[in-house]
Amino acid sequence: MLLLNAKAVLDRDTRIEKEVSKESTSPSSDGVLGTSWPRVLQQYDDAQTAYAIVSHRWRDKQEDKQEVDYNEMVNLMDMQEGERGEVRRRSGYKKILASCKQAMNDRLEWLWVDTCCIDKRSSSELSEAINSMYRWYENSTRCYAYLDDVDNPTFPTEQNFERFGRFKGWPEWFSRGWTLQELIAARDVQFFNKGWAPIGNKRNLADTLEKITHVSKDILISGLDSGVRSAAQIMSWAADRETARVEDRAYSLLGLFGVQMPMLYGEGKTAFQRLQLEVIRLSNDHSIFAW
């Protein structure tokens, strides 16, 4: 898997800031800073490496890109000053920096963030990442669940329809398809509010998390082997969750069912039919047809 070197990312940003200050007094011709900088992304074996991993909500909109992709992260230093500045102002870039700082605080050198650690221009790399994602969260040393719509210094323990009315009274993170497997797979999930203040972890919030997700405390704390009875049970957890693309309703469940499939974006609802057939083939569990 591709991992961010947290220290290299932070050092690079600090050096950019210094160069920006210099440029304000002695501007160069084009603002390009060159490529003699530490590599921020490197390939490592997830089973042999200690790393943190981020679980979050993407905030890209059609006319307002906020996340930072692989190409932008790798080529940040080769950009013109204006383009580089635009990337650094995005909330997604600030999220990466905050995640790197948290990893450093936790004495973890490596970090995985889905926005920039997958080169989505490559269909084979994207397919491999989606099929490996459950394992990557499971093998992580620590998972940072970032709830960017929580302003309070404590985790919300009761529904608040005024604050989170669109999402059944809970933070939006709990309404998304991908975050279900991330919550279950990662052994150590630490929750953070909008300002990156810690507001609890999966173990000490287990009662509240069970109330929100309907996933039992045993499974939340100890994993799927501690109590999943059927495919229908897993589907019941995912029933009210949403994904940006219809195919991701199926792809986000691959790890929970322990199956692998090629990614075929554009296939629409056929993705879920393929998932059902794969579950039947591997487990003969026909309860998935109830959904």
Task: Quickly describe the structure.
This protein has 291 residues and is α/β, with parallel strands linked by helices. The protein has helices spanning 6-25, 70-74, 81-89, 91-105, 123-139, 161-164, 178-185, 206-213, 217-222, 231-238, 248-251, 254-257, 270-283, and strands spanning 2-5, 41-43, 51-55, 110-112, 142-146, 189-192, 198-201.
Question: What does this molecule look like?
Answer:
It contains 13 helices and seven strands. By secondary structure, the chain is α/β, with parallel strands linked by helices. Strands 2-1-4-3-5-6-7 form a seven-stranded mixed beta sheet, with helices on both faces. Helix 1 crosses helix 4 (91-105) and helix 5 runs parallel beside helix 7. It is globular and about 65 Å long. The two termini are 33 Å apart.
Strand order of the largest sheet: 2-1-4-3-5-6-7
Mean pLDDT: 92
Q: How many distinct helices?
A: 13
* Low confidence ranges: none
Reported for the largest beta sheet, the result is: 7 strands, mixed
Rg for CA atoms:
20 Å
Taken as a percent bin, the fraction of beta residues is 5-15%
Structural class: alpha/beta
Please provide the count of β strands.
Answer: 7
The helix/strand order is EHEEHHHEHEHHEEHHHHHH
Large-scale geometry:
globular
Separation of the first and last Cα atoms: 33 Å
